[in-house]
Amino acid sequence: MGRSVWGCWQGVFSTAVLYGSLALFTSILHNVFLLYYVETFVSVYKIDKVSFWVGETVFLIWNSLNDPLFGWLSDRAFLSSPQTGSQITNPEVVLKRLKALSTNGPLFALSFLAFWVAWARPGLQFLLCLCLYDGFLTMVDLHHSALLADLAVSATDRTRLNFHCSVFSALGSFSVFLSYSFWDKEDFYSFRFFCVTLATFSILGFFVVSRLLQHRFQKEVRARQDEALTLKELSVGHAPLTQPEKPVTIGQYIKQLSRHRNFMWFVSMNLVQVFHCHFNNNFFPLFLEHLLSDNISASTGSILLGISYIAPHLNNLYFLTLCQRYGVYQVIRWLFMLKLGLSVVMALAGADHIYLLCIFIASNRVFTEGTCKLLKLVISDLVDEDFVVNRRQQAASALLFGMVALLTKPGQTFAPLIGTWLLCVYTGYDIFEREPVKDSLVSVPDIASGSGTPPLRLGCFYMLVFVPITCALLQLAAWSRFTLHGRKLQGIKTLRQGAQHGHLIDVKAI
């Protein structure tokens, strides 16, 4: 009876829908976490400043190191060259990742709940909660991202998988709007109940969807194992003696990556992209306050904020259709050029065109976040190239995603540091001391324009337009050196499919 129920549900949903739904169970929690965890510990639990910065510093280190660490623990068995009779089939890899998701997904949801109940001293709870939450989030995100490269090789199938992720991520963003109805730092009971409801939904979702996908691939694994057993019986006494090869060490793997030119150019571009995404996140409220607050209503500001959360997911659906027609490389290049063009137009128009400024602030964040959501497709292509160039036994997709995260996450730290420094240089405004600095580049109102623009507003405008211009120029320069597209990409995919012929998944259900 139980098997028939599972079989019935498997027939209803495609692999792409089930894969995409895993993004929903992550995003409904993570969006709420990003919005409220700082205010909860500062305003509700009254954490002291030293404990807060100690926790953030430890979290920064842990956040940077856990991606490659978990990726290495997950994929180190796949790094050695193929050996006769020791192939790990692709369905077995997928099954391993799904088992990891079925365990770490519910644990991720439970670690989310640990933030909203005071169970230790604020400083200790802050540190432990951040590290636990980020550890389980990393495990979920790494295995979910790696499945994109493991479930499909063709650009069409991967685009379809990413399309469903964007749909479900957009649905997950609505938890932010619902949270406003429950958030009250004076009476925390309603918000706790809301978080428990979200976590329960997430736990059930991870359990059910991962089980459905596991049942789907267990049949294929059993079929491959029976086939391998038959071949082994037929070749008894005829198998040649082979010298087992030593597994690749982490040092050898890093050396291989350092020679991977497309990986290095992609990381260079993505470091700037991560910086720009977090720069927009960090300074979006500042731009709204000092550039628009005197000219737009509070409701208009909230609409802009809402658009900035949901529109990137919806916009990505259109970008993915363009990717199918023109290729991911070309679409990302167009987005960089669009970012550069819009920023130049805004710089020439000036800060007094309010409606143009509203459109630019919203579109700048939407297009930047949209670009970030396409980059998983590029990393999946790099997984293919790494597999072919280094003759892997199996694609080390989780490890490569982890190494990309290790080398690009410093952009998260650089964004607020460089942003606050630029603000101080241009305006003399120190965001921490709130006192003017004497040697600022802009120390008087802009009398030439006749508008009496305050220095802080003018400095915010300079940051708003010149940071995207600089980022776009650097990214276009790095992206022009990236060669994994067009015929070369098709050749790599053909070689991977040929090398793993008989070991890849039948993706007809996608």
From TrEMBL:
- Asked if the Swiss-Prot or TrEMBL record annotates the protein with the keyword Lipid biosynthesis, the reply is no
Under InterPro entries, the record lists:
MFS_trans_sf, TMEM180
Q: Where in the cell is it found?
A: Membrane
Transmembrane feature ranges: 12-38, 161-183, 189-209, 263-284, 296-319, 340-362, 461-479
Please report the record's description of how this protein sits within the membrane. Answer: Multi-pass membrane protein
Q: Which UniProt keywords apply?
A: Membrane, Transmembrane, Transmembrane helix
Which one Pfam family would you cite for this protein?
Answer: MFS_2
CDD domains listed in its UniProt record: MFS_MFSD13A (cd17481)
Cell division is among the record's keywords: no
Which GO CC annotations does the UniProt entry carry? membrane
Q: What is this protein called?
A: Major facilitator superfamily domain containing 13A
Originating species: Seriola dumerili
